[in-house]
Structures are given as structure tokens and as C-alpha cells.
Amino acid sequence: MEETKKAVILLSGGLDSTTLLALARSEGFSLYGLTFRYGQRHLHEIAAACRVAERFRICEHRIVDIDLRAFGGSALTGDIAIPKGEALSETEDIPVTYVPARNTIFLSYALAWAEVLKINDIFIGVNVVDYSGYPDCRPEFIEAFAKTANLAIKAAVEGEIMISVRAPLMYLSKGEIIRLGQSLGVDYRLTHTCYDPEPDGLSCGQCDSCLLRKKGFLEAGFKDPIDYAL
After folding, report:
1. Can you give the CATH number for the domain in which 13 is found?
2. In 3-state terms, the chain is what percent helix, strand and coil (to 5)?
3. Which of 2, 4, 29, 33 suits 71 as a labelling partner, its CA being 20 to 30 A distant?
4. How confident is the model over 112-125, as pLDDT tens digits?
């Protein structure tokens, strides 16, 4: 009898990570979801991650608290204004919504859990096509982290597991990701994308993340099922 494949998946509750979850499940993985409450202003994404985890009935979903506000340096964890609309064109190549070392930290937690569970595969929904220019979304970073992971943990050094960091959305456009999700039956009403939502969770419609989402649905030829303030 073939052993069940297991994977740890970074689940933010956004469009990409939800599509990733559906894809991993379609490939036969039993999934362990990891979500972070890291001091982000868009906390509504955590509720979205819980909705997604429940809908897909994953094996286990853990929410981990990390206070990245202690360091700041990002519009998502500090008092820096989030660029919107025309202001986005005035931002630097790496925008102020970049959170210092965030994916390195998230993957390190996923690595620790994978070692405890004796799991080889870690899924992350990073992308280099329609994205904001974050350095920790590049393939070079993912490859380097996987190499480091297999040098860093006891279970890999002793040959019990071999860590693979899987990023199957890396070279897909946002429209292609949405089409993939639609083919897998993803209900995008469950997801949350906005960096600066209203108190009730309504997406602003003007931040970088909202604009990328709108562009993706337009390119995919589907109506976005969520509402926007603008």
C-alpha cells in the first residue's frame, strides 16, 4: 500500500495560497496548513485562511504568532502609508509593502514543523510574473532556502527526510493562477487579498494587491466574486 504523501503549506488566505492548496490536494497531498499572525494590518486574511482550511478539510491548520512589528520597516507592519492608485507608480522597485525577511521566517517555521512531522515537501505560493518585486519571491531564494534546509535539520542530515520547497505558481501570471484555481473548483469568495481593508474587511480596491487581483480576473475572463470599496 502506497504511503500517503504529506506536505506543509504556507496558507495566507489569499488568492495564490488558496489556489496552491487546491493544486497540492489535486496532486494527492495530505496538507498541514501554516498561517501567521505577524502584526500585519490586514488581519482579515487570517479569517480567510481559516475559511479555506475548513472548506478543504486539511489535516491540521495552525496559526502562529510572530510580532514583526518589533522591527517595522514595512507598510504592512508599521505606520508607513500603503501606496494606492497613482501613488504606486512612484514607489521604488521593492515597495514599502515588502516585509523584511518575511518568507525566510515563514519557511523556517514550516521547516521546523516538517521536521517534526517527517514531511519532505513544503509548498509556498510565491510568484515572479505578476508580483510586487519582493526579493524573497524569486526562484534563486527558494532554491537557496531548500539547500540550506537540508543542511540545517537533524532529520535531513540523518537521511530521514529530504526537504523540497515547492513553488508551482512561480512562473504563472495572475490570470493563469485564477484559471488554474477555477479548474480546481476554488471558491475565491473565501479569499482575502487587500493590504489595507476597511474595518469590516471590505477590500480597498486601490492597493497593489487589489490591483493585481483585479487585473488577474480580467485577464482570466472571470468575474471577481468579492466586493471592493473602489
Report:
1. 3.40.50.620
2. 40, 15, 45
3. 33
4. 999 999 999 999 99
